[in-house]
Amino acid sequence: MRPKRHAPAAARTIQHQPVEQQRGTSTQRGYGYRWQQARAGYLRKHPLCAECERQGRVEPATDLDHVKPHCGDDVLFWDRDNWQGLCHPCHSRKTAAEDGGFGNARR
Questions:
Q1: Does residue 83 sit within a domain?
Q2: Sign of the CA dihedral with 77 first, then 78, 80, and 86 last
Q3: For residue 90, what pLDDT is reported?
Q4: What was the pLDDT predicted at 37?
Q5: Residues 6 or more apart whose Cβ sits within 8 Å of residue 59
Q6: Which of 13, 22, 49, 96 measures 20 to 30 Å from 57, CA to CA?
Q7: Residue 87 included in any domain
């Protein structure tokens, strides 16, 4: 019987990068001052979670979501018809489903 051969430790070690280095900072992704101002104005006008409302619940919206992911498209990013206010749990669920988080397949 042959002894098991292992790759050198350096080859087995996975280098983890901070999230900011993996996907850029929020400002680098377009969520800077202009976005914060637009977000605040939208949530003032649309204070309830759109998903909770669809399910007959009333929850305050805390996050501004892009209904259709913009994937870096500036026109879609700033299209207010593509925005909806969501509570944080609804936004987290939607984002995880789209991005493949929490073991979900990436859409």
A1: yes
A2: positive
A3: 98
A4: 97
A5: 48, 49, 52, 87, 90
A6: 96
A7: yes
Query: Does residue 21 lie within any of the structural domains?
Result: no
Give the N- to C-terminal CA distance of the chain in Å, as an integer: 45
Task: Check: CB of residue 86 under 8 Å from CB of residue 61.
Answer: yes
Place of tokens 């999230």: 19
Q: Hey, what amino acid is at 22? A: Q
CB 43 within 8 A of CB 64: yes
More confident call, 100 vs 106: 100
Give DSSP secondary structure letters for 43-81: HHHS-B-HHHHHTT---B--EEEESS--TT-HHHHH-GG
Structural domain count, the chain = 1
* Per-residue pLDDT at 8: 55
Instruction: State pTM to two decimals.
Output: 0.71
Question: Is residue 40 over pLDDT 60?
Answer: yes
> Does residue 27 lie within any of the structural domains?
no
- Rounded to the nearest 10 degrees, how much is the dihedral formed by the CA atoms of 52, 57, 62, 63? 0
